[in-house]
Each structure stands twice: as C-alpha cells, then as structure tokens.
Design brief:
single chain, 269 residues, alpha+beta, Immunoglobulin-like, C8orf32 fold, 2 domains, 4-stranded antiparallel beta sheet, 37% strand
C-alpha cells in the first residue's frame, strides 16, 4: 500500500529552545520511503540513530521560542498483512540479540506481573495463535477512550481500569506477549484510518524469525502502517522530547492512501 503522510506541528519551547524529534518514517524492512520533505523553521538539525537502529531521531535547535515543523512523505508499505495463525515462537535460547531485549519488563510494561495470568488464560496456545488471542482479549476487555490515560500510565493501571488509548493498547499487548516468552516491542507508526488522526502506537511481536505488526485497537492492518520508531515502550519512542517544558500550539497529522511515485528527499541542511 502507498501512504501519503503530512504533518504540521507548532510548539512553544522553553529557554533551551531544542527538541528531540522522532517523526520521519524509518528506512527499514517492510517499507520504502520514496520521497520525504522536512522543514523546521529557523533550525539547525542533528540526526542520530533511532532506538535499536530503527529510524532516525533529530535534535532541532531553533532560533525562536516557537518551533514549527512540517513533514511530508510518500511511503510504499511492502510489509504484507500476514495472518499470525501458524507462525511459530522461538525458544528463548534461539532468539537473536535484537529480539531477546524485548522479553524483559520495562518502565511501562511490567510483564513479570502477568506471568500467572497469561499462563492461566493463554497457556494452552502457542506462537501466533497465542498472540492473536492476546490481541483479541485486549481489544475486548480494554475500552478505547480518548484522554483516559497520561504520560505515567502503566499496564498495571490499564489492566485495572480497563480503558486507554492506542499507547495503552500497545503496552498491554507487549506486556502480555513478553509474559508468554514472546518478544514484543512498542512501535510508533503513521497509520491509515486512525481516528482521531494522530501519531499511532502498535506492538511488534517476534515470530518465525521476524517482527510482525499487530494493532489491538483494530484501527490499522500491518500493510497500512509506516513505522517511525520502536522501543521497549513509549519511553523509547516519543515523537518529541524536550529538556525543559514545551507548550502545544497546533498539530495535524494526515495519512492517506495514494498512488506510487518516486521522488527526492528534501530537508533542512
């Protein structure tokens, strides 16, 4: 599927006048970034690798106290929407380093607290069937409710309250999959059909020697998402971080389906 992404956001920055951005579609397996353009007004940009080597983070040092960012891209998503049924989970000793890290508990995904629950609820299943059952459980038991969580909400809170946003759904899938000894990581994506339109969060699980995108909110399929960044949880993949406070002014995210066409990348020098 061919995706057309447009982002326009403005924030008032503090005295440091810098922000670490993770907004560019990653150049990674499963997608081809055919064209992209990034403009940050009156800014100097410094690029560093994203978490796990996926994607790019940008330090934007701006001259004014208001940072305005425009980003557009054409992305060909080559990752198919593969049914998880029939995919196998590798034993722990056979996992590669890139997957092994995502078996461990993290700040927002305390997977070690769910081992007993997962064994009782999903212990009769294996591999892709187990992940499917976990996603179905999260979709059924957790209510998607805007503004129902905040930056400090963990899976323990979500499990107790049974409500959340895409970030919480992704965290819940990651925690339950890890508790089942299936590597799972948090993925920030641009997704087609997300309501309300915004940055989206899903999970990636390691099955049959590869990462597979799963969205327990039901908004997006794997072939309609472009990965921006990945990590243990939302702490590793925020779209923006600042040293001091930043105040929201405006932000719009648009993801549309479009026709394929290659072009050049343009960005701040």
């Amino acid at each position: 599927m061919h995706l057309l992404v447009d982002l326009d956001m403005s924030y008032r920055l503090g005295a440091f006048r810098s922000a670490l951005l993770s907004i560019e579609a990653a150049h990674c397996a499963g997608q081809i970034v055919e064209r992209e353009q990034l403009v940050v007004d009156d800014a100097t940009l410094t690029r560093i690798p994203g978490e796990g080597g996926v994607g790019t983070r940008l330090w934007a040092h701006v001259e004014a106290d208001v940072m305005r960012v425009r980003y557009s891209a054409e992305i060909e998503v080559t990752c198919p929407d593969i049914p998880l049924a029939g995919l196998h989970a590798a034993p722990m000793h056979a996992l590669p380093a890139e997957a092994l890290t995502y078996l461990r508990p993290s700040r927002f995904c305390q997977s070690d607290a769910f081992t007993g629950f997962v064994d009782k609820r999903f212990g009769h299943l294996d591999g892709g069937e187990k992940v499917m059952a976990i996603c179905e459980w999260v979709s059924r038991e957790i209510v998607y409710l805007a503004a129902s969580s905040h930056a400090q909400t963990t899976v323990l809170d979500t499990f107790a309250r049974r409500e959340g946003v895409c970030r919480d759904f992704a965290h819940m899938v990651c925690a339950l999959a890890r508790a089942a000894n299936i590597p799972a990581r948090y993925a920030a994506v641009y997704g087609l059909g997300v309501e309300p339109p915004d940055f989206h969060a899903v999970a990636q699980v390691w099955l049959d020697d590869g990462w597979h995108l799963v969205d327990a909110t039901g908004m997006c399929s794997a072939d309609a998402m472009a990965v921006i960044a990945v990590g243990r949880d939302a702490c590793d993949a925020p779209f923006m971080e600042t040293v001091d406070e930043a105040s929201f002014i405006a932000q719009t995210v648009s993801v549309l389906a479009g026709a394929s066409g290659r072009g050049l990348r343009l960005s701040n020098p």
